[in-house]
Amino acid sequence: MTGKNYMWIVTQSVLGGAADYAPGEFPPGMLGVHFNTTHQRLLDEIERAVTIFGHGLELFVNDAKNLNLSLSPNLSCNGSAETRWSRGDIFFKSVSIRVFPSLHVM
């Protein structure tokens, strides 16, 4: 899994401290992703996730095509029936983000 046909995408926890050069044991093609992990940033992202989820619910409920559809997954830890949320794809189509995240290249 370290040959030329593979790419590893990892977080800063794998990369460790800031270094100008990747250690020799890192496979070629490894992409390290750094992101802000401060407490405030975490709170901001939780707020964003709840806002997006709420917006998706609003769009779903206000769409006339979904009038008789239930979002209840009818899943149980004890059941042996379907283990997939059959309406999940319908709800997913209602969730959208109007602003793309900013990218910072180092």
Kindly summarize this structure in a few lines.
With 106 residues, this protein is mainly alpha-helical. It has helices spanning 12-15, 39-62, 88-92; strands at residues 9-11, 31-33.
Global shape: elongated
Tell me the strand percentage band.
5-15%
Care to count the β-strands?
Answer: 2
* CA gyration radius, whole angstroms: 20 Å
Strand-pairing-aware structural class:
mainly alpha
Strand line-up across the major sheet: 1-2
What's the number of helices? 3
Main sheet overview: 2 strands, parallel
Unreliable segments of 5+ consecutive residues: none
Mean pLDDT: 77
Helix content: 25-40%
Overall description:
This protein is mainly alpha-helical. It folds into 2 domains: 1-34, no CATH class; 36-98, no CATH class. The protein has 3 helices and 2 strands; from the N terminus they run βαβαα. It has helices at 12-15, 39-62, 88-92; strands at 9-11, 31-33. A two-stranded parallel sheet has the order 1-2.
What labels would you give this structure?
mainly alpha, 31% helix, two-stranded parallel ribbon, 6% strand, 106 residues
Write the layout of secondary structure elements.
Elements: E1 9-11, H1 12-15, E2 31-33, H2 39-62, H3 88-92
Parallel strand pairs: 1-2
